Amino acid sequence: MKYTVSIEIALPRERVVQLLADPAHLPKWLRGLVLHEPLSGVHGQVDTKSRVVMQMGRQKIECTETITRREPADLREIPTGSVVHFDREIVGEGMWSAVRDRLTEAGPETTLWVSESEYRFSGVLMRLAGVLMPGAFRKQSQQHMQDFKAFAELGEDVREAKD
What we know:
7 strands; SRPBCC family protein
């Protein structure tokens, strides 16, 4: 299963990228995050492996995330017109996923974030979920982007949401 979602954020690309890359901000916008801890490497750097635990309703999902691409490596003073790439693989029970994020300047004070996701399922339950609820994966990705936008532009924290 593959899909692409995108969102425009009313902040300069360099600021958006720095907010996304800072692990201290993850709980503020990544809805359901219980834990994100590096097992090896430095958070956000290529080849870093992290243990990620998410709470989805009553179910806790644990997986391993590996950063496969981050360009440029230095997120300060990014050249005008260049594309920031941030890719990762996520492996959990019965599931493999690759996420390829691209951040470009949509204007002097606006950033376009495009995220391509690919999922492969091996377990019976995960295959069934992929067949019966493909829209749920896309909807969750879009929700994470909307939550990040609200955090970046307005300072909203998903942990304080009343939903």
